[in-house]
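WARN no homologs supplied; continuing
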Amino acid sequence: MKQILNIALMALLFLGTSEYLSAQVSGISYTLSPSAEYTKWDNQAGLEDGFLLGGKLGFSFGEFLELRGNYMQSIDLKTNFADYGIPSFTDSLLTPRNVNLIRYGGELKLNLSRGHLLPFLTLGTGIQSIQLDTFTANKHIYASVGAGLVFSIADRYTFTLEAKNTPYNFNAGRYLLTDEDKTALDVSNNSFTTNQLKNNWSLNASLQFYLGGRRPGKMSDLDKAYTSAFSGGLRGLRMPLEPTLAKINWDKNLPFRDTWLGGGYLGVDFNEYVGIRGFYLQAMENNEITTQFDKMAMYGGELRTRLNVSQGLTPYLVVGGGYINIDNNYVSRDSMSAAKSQAFALGGLGINLPLGKKVKLFGSARAILTTGADITALETTEQVKTSWMYNFGINLTLGKKAKDPEIIFETKLEAALDSQRVANQNEEIKLKKEYQARIVDLEKELNTAYEEKNINKAAGLLKEKENAEQVVAELEKREQDRLNQPSQSPLPPLPPTPNTSNSMILMSPAEFEGIIEEILENAKNQQPNTAVNPAASSQNMQQLLQQQQLDQRVAQIEKLLIQMNERQDANQKIEEIQKSSNEQMIQKELTEFSAKLLLEIQKLNAKIDDNHNAIQNLKNGKTPDQSEVSPNTNTETNTTEQPKILTSVTEGNVLGVESGG
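OK structure emitted
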């Protein structure tokens, strides 16, 4: 057992010292905490030590304050009066009986620091129900106070250990012993009194989940400015003053008369979520709003927690307490027994309606919990009376003006844009160098392709080179615009070149190879001449013009290569498309062609007959005037062509195919 405890402590120590974990969430968040608790009961509780299981559900208001509701229920709980102090008690006289214990209420949790290993305090109250077997349940008020540590185990997940004490007032002998038990022990209800059970110590373990909110330290200055703007336009500590009117309807069993009250609240808002208020309210006479005041006053303090941050309606929770001060001359309700001053607790819900950065309207409803008995002698919940108070008023807040989020936004935006501009410039410089190096490599590969007379490879390299040069030109243009420098003076324009965008130059492979060889030869023989010779200036100018013309031819040929390559790709696609359609139409076209061919054969046979008759007439000595005019007579030259003699007309004659072919 000792080894297990040592391992558990080491694991908790590791979790608590992990640097990347955080035990807190900032902003509004919701918490869910499955819990288990082992309790060592007070000797006068009449209960055997045992376990409670349940959970907690609540709100987290920033990093330091949480408001939680809790529910716990006993597991296999038994009675135990061994140490109760009954004189005649023996184990043989009393059999342990089953007890059903249910506890529900609320508590405040205050975190004492920031970090991975987080100490905290808790303070709470609620109702505890204890029922013996099937007997009537006894309900009473409990209080709780505790302290513990939170260990971070993951983002938004924490493990909590808490030691707490839960005092309450209870008469165990009266409510946990049956009549048979009392007879066996020779006791009665008069033998027992209500005890203040102050030593109900327990160890609670829970796993807490955070829903919503932010990790601490994640808010930028802009986030804080917008939060302040939405929370009223103020930042830091704020001091609200709230003149108010209130109407209270007392429980009918209390001696207080329903009344209107006037007064105010004054306090401090620590941040946009949490604030405290002190209040003083004076009752008015005759249950009316008047300047005549009654002999009753209420004062105290309360904690306020806002449930959201916005520029519209904002709900908030209220929890607190105070004191009802009754003057000796106060007249009780309906001649009831004299009213006495006493403490009270309160809880409620309110809502704010902003009218400006420093002015709000508010309204709220509060439950006022009181009792006519001494609070230390409370035994059952029936002794607690609930009254309702409704109030409204105006909130005037003093505080530092929040920073304008628009100014912060513009500053942040400009800084971000400047940073991005520098990054973009560095990327452009790097990209320009890469493309320039690539152009040099492409030039080398292009010369090799020319030497190898590899047309397809040259066309692809030229296309890639053209794209790279366009990128470099665009980057240089951006650089010039950025530096706000005038562009360099342009070079003298070249002689106009023919527009080949809509024309196509046709060359045989031999002609193309000859041009390539000429270009390469000129490139190899081109030698720089740096000597200054006035006599050769004319010759140099002629060479310069020749070089310009040669450069133009090279550019034209490069464009031609690209066009030829694109045309070849397009032709391949067209051939693939036409191939499938031609196969389907070929049979139909052959049939139609055969029919047309037979018709032409018939026409040609008729012409052959005419030619044959004309030949016979010439042999018989007839002139053309004595016979039909031949269709081949040339009227302009007044000569007659000798018809071509076809002995027969077939498909082979028409197509130019020899007989038998």
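The longest strand covers residues 138-154.
OK
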